[in-house]
Amino acid sequence: MNFLDIDDRINFKTIKLKVGEEYETAWKEIITIVSWKINQILTNNELKTFESSLFYKWNKFKAVEDSIFTVVGISDEINHNNVDVEEDFWDFCRKNWTSVYEAYWVLEGTDLYKSDVIDYEFNWVKYKSNYWFCWKNVDCWMHNEHEFVEIHTSILWDGRMEKFKENDEFTLLEQVNMRPWLSHRPFNKIWEFDKGWNPIYPYHRWKWNEKWDIWLVIEKY
């Protein structure tokens, strides 16, 4: 099990369950399935790979198959409809995380930050996860090169994922509004790889919507 906290109010962990094992939620948790599927016992609904939702206390899940999922715990003081702590989060991320300029030498002076990365493994497949934070009106860098398949889970507020035909604003193909607690389907071309066996991606990016955003990235290698 791995942990990654944001100012003690948003925390991250990974859970692995053998088939038949159970997990019970704490007060308020965003669950994103990384691989295979689990069953919500009370409703008998299944969550499958790359599906996510917000669940409250008393939910129990049972692994339909050997499965791994991420859990983001949200402090009860955080009400998504009235987040009055944005300056606190901004200050925390600037002080404790790495700016995109420091990491990649792009977007100098932009309020875009990434947290430490957590590595984990499941069924001989490697995964990495980390948080990102961007301030209002931030364009999070159009790109199309990846060594991994990625998905994003929206944690607070509502950015959007955009897909493009070319490296050009005017070639927009798809826009996914990343409402809180939801993930999107992968943007890569399924079962297609380049000569280095990297997944083939169209140009894409995360972009601000109306407010600052915090989201979780899950990378599959």
Written account of the structure:
The radius of gyration is 17 Å and the shape is globular. The protein is built from two helices and 18 strands. Strands 10, 11, 12, 13, 14 and 18 form a six-stranded antiparallel sheet that branches. The protein has a five-stranded antiparallel sheet with strand order 1-2-9-4-7. Strands 3-8-5-6 form a four-stranded antiparallel sheet, with no helix packed on it. The mean pLDDT is 90. The protein has helices at 86-96, 100-104, and strands at 4-6, 10-17, 22-24, 28-35, 38-40, 45-47, 52-56, 60-63, 67-74, 98-99, 112-114, 118-122, 125-134, 149-156, 160-164, 172-177, 203-207, 213-220. The protein is mainly beta and 221 residues long.
Q: What number is the mean pLDDT?
A: 90
The CATH architecture of the largest domain is Sandwich
Q: How many individual helices?
A: 2
Write down the CATH topology of the largest domain: Jelly Rolls
Rg calculated over all Cα atoms? 17 Å
Structural class: mainly beta
Largest sheet: 6 strands, antiparallel
In the CATH hierarchy, what is the class of the largest domain?
A: Mainly Beta
The counted number of beta strands is 18
Q: How would the global form be characterised?
A: globular
Which key features would you list for this structure?
single chain, 221 residues, mainly beta, Jelly Rolls, 2 domains, six-stranded antiparallel β-sheet, five-stranded antiparallel β-sheet, 2 helices, 18 strands
Question: How would you sum up this structure in a few lines?
Answer:
The chain is mostly beta strands.
Topology:
Blueprint: E1 4-6, E2 10-17, E3 22-24, E4 28-35, E5 38-40, E6 45-47, E7 52-56, E8 60-63, E9 67-74, H1 86-96, E10 98-99, H2 100-104, E11 112-114, E12 118-122, E13 125-134, E14 149-156, E15 160-164, E16 172-177, E17 203-207, E18 213-220
Antiparallel strand pairs: 1-2, 2-9, 3-8, 4-7, 4-9, 5-6, 5-8, 10-11, 11-13, 12-13, 13-18, 14-18, 15-16, 15-17
